[in-house]
Amino acid sequence: MSHVSPVPPAEDPDSPLDPAVMRAQYRTSGLREQDLAEDPYRQFARWFAEVTASGLEEPNAMVVSTADADGRPSSRTVLLKAYDERGFVFFTNYGSRKGLEIAANPYVSLLFPWHPLARQVIVAGRAERVAPEETAAYFHSRPHGSQVGALASAQSTVVGSREEIDAAYARLAARYPEGTEVPVPTEWGGLRVVPESVEFWQGRENRLHDRLRFVRAAGPGQGEEWRVERLCP
Ligand SMILES: Cc1cc2nc3c(=O)[nH]c(=O)nc-3n(C[C@H](O)[C@H](O)[C@H](O)COP(=O)(O)O)c2cc1C
Fold this sequence. Notes:
By secondary structure, the protein is α+β, with helices and mostly antiparallel strands. It has helices spanning 40-53, 97-104, 132-139, 144-152, 162-175; strands at residues 2-4, 24-26, 61-67, 73-79, 82-84, 87-93, 107-114, 119-129, 188-202, 210-216, 226-230. A hairpin with a 5-residue loop joins β3 (61-67) and β4. α4 crosses α5 (162-175). Catalyzes the oxidation of either pyridoxine 5'-phosphate (PNP) or pyridoxamine 5'-phosphate (PMP) into pyridoxal 5'-phosphate (PLP).
């Protein structure tokens, strides 16, 4: 579907690769208004199924961007764990940098970087905490080691050494051995991003990509109505 032009071999193995010479030519049939699903969730489901079927690794990995109260942005990868008409859900530590930024400013951006299919999906919306029962159900579905790890780590805080982290893990693993219930960390849980817009980007030849954006016409809960607009590439 896409082809990356060969990068000339570097004479000196230590010389850096020049990203300016890397250029992919996208050959796809494109994305037309009449082929779009009726809402962004169904369109997302279609693309997500196609991307997963293509064998792309971690198709549910997405970049979450937040901004603090002063408008300074930060980004990181997380995993999408659920999506439906209510929004896109990921799990994290509410006391992490992203968690604190969202508490101060709930507006976030999600980006799915599906490069091998020359696609990206960009969601803009507001993040809200999921119900504690939803968090508990997901938390206890995780492997035991991941549950203990979440309990052992005050995500995003500065720590003196790796040894301190390993010691905290060992202490909690002894307290909650395999087969016992690990308590859900008080600061850990799900965030649902309720979209205000969702853009579907399909790479095409000559940089004339297709960009179709669903924009919410009515507020969430007031009946889902979406307007579709085409953006210049
Ligand atoms: C592929 C991948 C998946 C990740 N998934 C998650 C996740 O689902 N939740 C999470 O809190 N961090 C996840 N991380 C770690 C985050 O990128 C990040 O390091 C962490 O959440 C702390 O971010 P913050 O300090 O900006 O809040 C993942 C990292 C990668 C590379």
